[in-house]
Amino acid sequence: MRSDSLRRLVPRVRKRSACHLALGRIAVFAWCADKHVRDIHSAAMRLAASPLMGREHDDLKPGIREVVVYPTVLFYRVSCEQVEVVRAVDGRRDIAAIFGED
Description:
The chain contains 2 helices and 4 strands. The protein is of the alpha+beta class. The longest helix is centred in the N-terminal third of the chain and has 47 residues, at 3-49.
């Protein structure tokens, strides 16, 4: 193969590699997002079995409890027969301000 043919081939390989790398990153991000959603769902199912497992947060609103699935915080309240998830918030945000908006 001639050297000028190789030169034309090399940029194509680099472009494909960059494209494959980008697709790989997207796949990893999608996997992480899916795992986080599964973790949140699992925490919600554990709440159904053990509703008082979360920490009380009466300072935000009376009857509010929280369970953390980092970085997400599930805020919920327990009534006679059910657990109601009130909010799912990124725990790195100003939570008092968010609840103050209500």
